[in-house]
Amino acid sequence: MHTPSFTLRIAIGLAAMSLALPSLPRPLSAQATPQAVERLRITPAARTIAVGDSLLLTVQAVDSRGQAIPGAIVRFNAQGGRFQGAVDSLGWVRAGAPGTVPIAVTAMVPGGRPIVEKIEVRITPGPAARVVVTPR
C-alpha cells in the first residue's frame, strides 16, 4: 500500500532544502462522527462521608447502548456548600462541615453536546473527639 506524501521546500538565504514528508492523517472530525454521551454512570452510589474524610467520585460516560465512551472529558464543579466541602478536578470530595455539597458533573466528547448530572454528597458529623462522663 502506498502512503501519499508531499515535498516541503525550505529556503534559508542562498541554501535550499527539500524534505519528503508523509501526508498527515485526516482530522478526527473528518474520520468519524463522535459517539453521543447519553448518560453518566457515577460511583459510588452511596455518597455520604464524615467531616474530615474524603470520597473519590468516578464517572463513566455511556452511549445509548450503555457502552462506555473512551476519551470523554469529565468535569466536576461544586455548586455551593463551600463551607461543607469541596471537589477537585479529579473528583475528590473533601468534607469540611456537616451539610450537603451539591456537585455538577459534566461529560462530553469533542464535537458532541455536554451532559450534566447534578448530585449531592452528604457530610455527617465526625466521630466524637472525647467522651466526658459526669458525675465522676
3D architecture notes:
By secondary structure, this protein is mainly β. It has a domain at 35-124: Immunoglobulin-like (Sandwich). The chain contains 1 helix and 11 strands. The strands form 4 sheets. Strands 4-11-10-7 form a 4-stranded mixed β-sheet, with no helix packed on it. A 3-stranded antiparallel β-sheet has the order 5-9-8, with no helix packed on it. Strand 8 (85-87) and strand 9 form a beta hairpin. The longest helix is centred in the first third of the chain and has 4 residues, at 28-31.
Quick overview of this protein structure:
This protein has 136 residues and is an all-beta fold. 3% of the residues lie in helices and 48% in strands.
User: Tally of extended strands?
Assistant: 11
Helix content: under 10%
Largest sheet: 4 strands, mixed
Spatial ordering of strands, largest sheet: 4-11-10-7
CATH domain fold name of the domain at 35-124: Immunoglobulin-like
Q: What is the general shape?
A: elongated
What is the average of the pLDDT values? 82
Q: What is the H-and-E element order?
A: EEHEEEEEEEEE
* CATH C-level category of the domain at 35-124: Mainly Beta
Sheet-strand content, in percent, reads over 45%
> Could you say which structural class the secondary elements and strand pairing correspond to?
mainly beta
Oligomer: single chain
CATH architecture of the domain at 35-124: Sandwich
Radius of gyration, CA atoms, in whole angstroms? 26 Å
Secondary structure tally, helices: 1
Ranges where pLDDT stays below 50 over 5 or more residues in a row are 1-8
> What is the distance, rounded to the nearest whole angstrom, between the alpha carbons of the first and last residues?
91 Å
